[in-house]
Amino acid sequence: RSGLRRNSYIKFNVTGITREIASVKLFLTNDLSIECHALYPKKCMNVFSVNPDSWREHLITWNNKPQFDRLLSSTDFVPLQTFSIDLTGSVTGNRQYSFGLNTTLANNTYMIFYSKDSPVRSPWRPILQIRQA
Questions:
Q1: Residue 110: CA atoms inside 13 Å, Cβ hemisphere, count?
Q2: Per-residue confidence band for 89, with pLDDT thresholds at 50, 70 and 90
Q3: C-beta pairs of 51-58 under 8 Å, 24+ apart in sequence
Q4: Sheet containing 45-50, strands listed edge to edge, beginning at the edge strand earlier in sequence
Q5: How far is residue 24's CA from residue 5's CA, in Å, rounded to a whole number?
Q6: 3-class SS of residue 86
Q7: Alpha carbons 26 and 88: distance in angstroms, whole number
Q8: Are 105 and 46 in contact (CB under 8 A)?
Q9: What is the pLDDT of residues 13-62, one digit of tens each?
Q10: Within 13 Å of residue 113, how many CA atoms lie on the same side as its CB?
């Protein structure tokens, strides 16, 4: 249907930070056989900061979804592969962080990513990789 929008939300509880953070990368695995750059000639996914206290996983709906805050990154990806998004500067210490994802793709094209519900040792689960200095 025309105007259909999809948002995704993801949270991480960051602990164990004892030194300055050198880099932060979010790893996601695309579970859809589309290549966004081939469909649309610019970055096709946006990552926003979201207040982690503004939503609960099992209670979120379109009508009570939290607002996206600051745009942190835009990226593209290739089909059925894991890719990284640089979020350095967005994670500053030990606390909970929340991110919102949406697409810039036209024609209501959507994205599918593996979630935390993938098997525990699955290489496809979302990972927030933090490297300390």
A1: 9
A2: very high
A3: 51/98, 52/11, 52/95, 52/96, 52/97, 52/98, 53/96, 54/98, 55/9, 55/98, 57/9, 57/11
A4: 7-14, 95-103, 45-50, 71-75
A5: 28
A6: strand
A7: 10
A8: no
A9: 999 999 999 999 999 887 665 556 555 556 778 899 999 999 998 899 98
A10: 24
Distance CA 25, CA 23 (A): 7
- Two structure tokens written together for 66: 């939290």
Determine how many CB atoms are found less than 10 A away from the CB of residue 128: 19
Return left, alpha or beta for 49; rule: phi > 0 is left, psi -120 to 50 is alpha, else beta: beta
Nearest to 5 by CA among 91, 97, 104: 104
